[in-house]
Amino acid sequence: MAGANPGIEGRFKRKQRRERIERRVYFVASFALLMLIWEACRAVGLINPKLFPSIAAVAQSCVAQLRDGSLQQHMYASFLRVLVSFSIGIVLAVIFGFLIGWFRVVRLLADPGINFFRALPPIALIPLMIIFFGIGETSKIIVLSYASFFPALVVIYQALVSLDPIYVRAARTLGATNMEMFRKIILPQLVPHIITACRVSLGVCWATLVAAELIAAQRGIGAMMVEAQNFFQMPPLVLGIILIGIISLVMDAIVRLIETKATQWQEKMSN
Amino acid sequence: MEKGIVIQGVGLTYSSAAGSFEALRDIHLSIEPGEFICLLGPSGCGKTTLLNTIAGFLEPTAGSVVMDGKRITGPGPDRGVVFQQYAVFPWLTVKENVQFGLRLAANRCSSEEIDRISEHFIDLVNLRDFKDAYPKQLSGGMKQRVAIARSYAVNPQVLLMDEPFGALDAQTRHFMQESLLQILEKERKTVVFVTHGVEEAAFLSTRVVIMAARPGRIREVIPIDVPYPRDAATKTSPEFIRIRAGIEKVVREEFQKLRSSEGI
Q1: Rounded to a whole number, what is the distance in Å from the CA of A172 to chain B's nearest CA?
Q2: A136 and A34 in one domain?
Q3: Among candidates A175, A185, A268 on the partner chain, residue whose Cβ is nearest the Cβ of B76
């Protein structure tokens, strides 16, 4: 019980803080090491310095692009695409996941199709979408929504199938209707799984975004990289790679933060 | 119209590709309002199956279960169920669990009623100090008291309890048996209680229904003529010990039969 032994609790808190600091130190050290290897490879000639820019050159390019505002525009374009498509994909995945998990007929009907589309890489749809919708935003949004939809769908409906039926039974005996069952019994149990689905989907969505932008886009981090490639500008190209990595990391961290906030009852469960 | 639960010629056979299994055969039992019935028997005798037909989770393949003149076709708030695995919602606090049924459209409660009723039943099961705790922070006995309060809150006529104290340690189990009787003393309900504990059955019930296996059927119904209120002292009274021994004897016979038929 809380407050039962302040001595032990204090010691536990101190230990937790020490571990947190330790993790941060190693986090920084890990990236410092990577940068060291990068510069070392250039210095000893393992990579041709003309083909791979120095850290300073990449940083310079970053500052220059921030000054003229082009970097912000690229990032904004990419973010917006991911955010819109990801939201569409997740909402649809929750709805369809529920239908598939709840109704046996829908599951039997949908299962083979899902497995086919799940195995199909989203990038394979890009040429078709460009013919259908042109090279504008629509085709990209559709491909990206598709990319975030399927992994989320699979996570959600598998979670639904594996839920303990006892809570549904208990709620039935208290008089819950189907709609109440969904809102008050199924959804709260699905929240942790929906967040997992978000993490998976966001990852896939980013990966696909860059591919979509590489093929056809004026703005976006992928477009920035293609432009750099065309003009043989190495610093912005490498900058693009680093940015994509950092943004993925940050997004994942944000989702994890939401996860701990939204599933506090589970945290308490593991006490 | 006859009040109470009438079980008429209930049979339940599961059929699958591997063959059919007769879980229940020709069960007849009438339960008066306010009775405490224990279904007692070896595992596989169909006591939980019978309870589930009263709850409406299972539909009998023969006969019918009728409550207050109406045939039971599905679960409903007139029959509260308390499960062995507690089934307390882990994402809700104690208070929210107890209020769960009251907040459903089916039970039409105003917010004052919800507060008043939930407070009342949280007090009744002695969980006032834990009303904002989450289930994981509670012991098994406390979780089961939350489940009992949650069932009571929607005011069912009947409480169906499926080995509710089966997962508890012996001390807690005795304590829970006594608390259950105290709660019933204050707010009377019809109870159907599944157990394989002879002492538990004798201590709680007005009648013990001993069941036999293969197929699941009623072997004997034994009335327990020990007056309520009963408490820990009841268990050591000569009368109680005699009744308990009588039940024990029948249960043992059934167990022996089952053993020899299985060739163990």
Answers
A1: 6
A2: no
A3: A175
**Which residue among A169, A174, A184 places its CB closest to the CB of B77?**
A174
Q: Which long-range contacts (CB under 8 A, 24 or more apart) does B16-25 make?
A: B22/B214, B22/B215, B22/B216, B23/B49, B23/B215, B23/B216, B24/B49, B24/B50, B24/B53, B24/B60, B24/B215, B24/B216, B24/B217, B25/B215, B25/B216, B25/B217
> By three-state DSSP, how is residue B159 classified?
strand
Q: Encode pLDDT of B73-108 as tens digits.
A: 999 999 999 999 999 999 999 999 999 999 999 888
pLDDT digits (tens, 9 = 90+) for B152-180: 999 999 999 999 999 889 998 999 999 99
Contact A237, A230 (CB under 8 A): no
On whether any CB of chain B is under 8 Å from the CB of A15, the answer is no
Residue of chain A minimizing CA distance to B132: A265
Domain assignment present for residue B145? The answer is yes
Tell me, yes or no, whether A2 and A112 share the same domain.
no
Identify whether the C-beta of residue A191 lies closer than 8 Å to the C-beta of residue A131. no
Reported ipTM: 0.89
- Looking at CA atoms only, how far is residue A171 from chain B in angstroms? 8
Chain A residue numbers with beta carbons less than 8 Å from the beta carbon of B132 are none
Which residues of chain B have a CB within 8 Å of the CB of A269? 90, 134-136
Asked if A187 is an interface residue toward chain B (Cβ–Cβ < 8 A), one would say no
| Number of structural domains found in chain B | 1
Q: Crossing angle, helix B111-124 and helix B140-153, to 10 degrees?
A: 140
Q: Do B106 and A175 touch (CB under 8 A)?
A: yes
Integer Cα distance of B128 and B69 in angstroms: 38
Range of the domain at B194: 34-60+70-262
Place of tokens 């008050």: A184
Query: H helices then E strands: how many in chain B?
Result: 7, 10
Interface contact A262, partner B, CB < 8 A: no
Residue given tokens 């507060």 in the structure block: B115
Residue A32 has pLDDT above 90, yes or no: yes
> Which residues of chain A make contact with B151, given a CB cutoff of 8 A?
173-174
Domain of residue A259, CATH code? 1.10.3720.10
Cα distances (angstroms) measured from residue A164 to each of A174, A185, A186: 17, 11, 10
What is the DSSP pairing of strand B19-31 with strand B70-71? unpaired
Q: Is the pLDDT of residue B203 over 50?
A: yes
Beta bridge pairs of residue B218: B211
Domain that holds residue A194: 61-269
The residue of chain B with its CA nearest to that of A190 is B91
* Mean of pLDDT values over A71-86: 91
Which residues on A lie below 8 Å from B55 (Cβ)?
173
Considering only CB atoms, B154 lies closest to which of A174, A180, A270, namely: A174
